[in-house]
Amino acid sequence: MRVCLLARSSRRSAAPTLTYFAAGLALPVQAVLIPYQTLASSVSQFMVDWVTGWWDDRISLVVVDLAMSLPFTVFVLTGYLRSLPAELEEAAALDGAGPVRTFWTVMVPVARPGMTTVTVLNAIGLWNEFLLVSVMVHDPAKFTLPAALNQLSSTLQYTSDWGGLFAGVTVLVAPMVALFFWCGRRIMDGMTLGATK
């Protein structure tokens, strides 16, 4: 809902806020890898020592992944929501709908292609997460599949379990290929509909 407010707002602060999120797209994860690792270690130590007595590194990984996917999500959805006609909101207001009801009953169904695009592209990026996992998660039993396959390929230096490695690569690639074939047309629709007004 905040993205919709940012896209449809006429306030002077909307454009700098969108520029701030667009700048986040230009920031590569490698540039902030050490600060993220330091922050995750500090949060983990604080949670273990003072709050809960335990901490899972995957929680820190989820928070960092959400922070890294937020600029792309805001940028694409803002462009898409700006391309929707203002008459939709006006018609909902004439029918007596408030801002929240207008958002959920009018804007969300109309913006479904843009949301599908963002969801699928973020899912593909998060499914293939390797760098942050290998830096932030210390227990190999908690690795995601790409990091686990990397560890398996490094152990294949002296053995030859290529069948297991290729089976893992198939398990890694097949769901994303199926997801793209299932939602590919919607992804293209969502990307092109938000590009023009």
Please provide a written account of the structure:
This protein has helices at residues 2-8, 14-26, 33-51, 57-82, 87-94, 99-110, 112-127, 131-136, 145-155, 162-193. The protein is mainly α.
- Dominant shape: globular
The average pLDDT value, as a whole number, equals 81
Series of secondary-structure elements, N-terminal to C-terminal: HHHHHHHHHH
The structure class reads mainly alpha
Low-confidence stretches: none
**What proportion of the residues form beta strands (DSSP E)?**
under 5%
Question: Biggest sheet: strands, sense, closure?
Answer: none
Number of DSSP strand runs: 0
Number of helices: 10
SSE blueprint:
Blueprint: H1 2-8, H2 14-26, H3 33-51, H4 57-82, H5 87-94, H6 99-110, H7 112-127, H8 131-136, H9 145-155, H10 162-193
Keywords:
10 helices; globular; mainly alpha
Describe the structure concisely:
The longest helix has 32 residues, at 162-193. The chain has 197 residues and is mostly helical. It has helices at residues 2-8, 14-26, 33-51, 57-82, 87-94, 99-110, 112-127, 131-136, 145-155, 162-193.
